[in-house]
Structure prediction request, 263 residues.
Amino acid sequence: MTHSEMPGTVEGGERARAAVETRQRRTLGPWFFVALAIAVLLSGYLAYSAVRNRNLQEAAGSIRTTGIPADLPTSIANLMSLSPIPRSIAPNFTLVDQHGKKVSLSNYRGRSVVLEFMDPHCTDICPIVSQEFVDAYHDLGRDASNVVFVAVNVNQYFTSVADMRRFSNEHQLNTIPTWHFFTGAPSELKAIWRAYGVTVEAPNPKADIIHSSFVYFISPNGRKQYLGVPSDDHTAKGTSYLPANQVASWGKGIALVAESLVH
Prediction:
């Protein structure tokens, strides 16, 4: 090839590349714009979905259950999963408390009762509910003496008065003057669980006790009026906890519901 032929060869190569690029643009162009349009539409849809979901969550948080105390904020009522229940007489029982004193639930007529079911060896939700009870007692102020805090043992393997006293002291429940942690023979306890719809799974003394966690609010005339459902979260290691603001809200909620029954 002579030098005079090279420019023509280079020029021919450039024309060939240009032709190829033109064909590529003609081929890819429509698909590129289609893909771009889809991406824009998808981005818009995702943004719309995010806003819609947030609005739905906010709306759900503002839904108020009917029949609950007027003074109770909706956010706290929802946190407590509080609901009114048929106003039937609360099943009576007679057991011994953490001081070894034998008492009947009916003895508390004339005062409102906050009733829970607890395991004296629990390290999960029971200590959290205990703190909520302590907070509620302090939130009650002048009405504190008109509200009784009661728990019934759900651990059939640990039923001694000493077990109830140890748990009560460990979680500051004995700082509540009207606190009673009741226990008795397994047969007595099981009958009470059934009467209040509490399920208990206790395969052996070393296993974790799995049980329903309910808070019953009983009016001064002895009738069940409201039901709350405590909840908790768990860390990555499985440790039970509830954010401090939610524990405080639960305490305030318990106090407000109990006060509403007193008045």
Summary: The first strand starts at residue 83 and ends at 84. Residues 74-262 form a domain with the Glutaredoxin fold (CATH 3.40.30.10). The radius of gyration is 33 Å. The chain has a mean pLDDT of 86.
